[in-house]
Amino acid sequence: MIAKTFKTAGQFTLRYGLAIVFIWLGLMKLRNSEADYLKQVLSNSSLFDWMLKYITSYAFSQMIAYLQIVIGVLIALKPVAKKLSFWGGLAASVILVISVSTLFTSSYVWQAPYGFPELSKLGQSILKDVILLGAAMWCAGDSA
Question: CA separation (Å) from 139 to 42, 96, 121, 131?
Answer without folding.
Answer: 28, 13, 28, 12
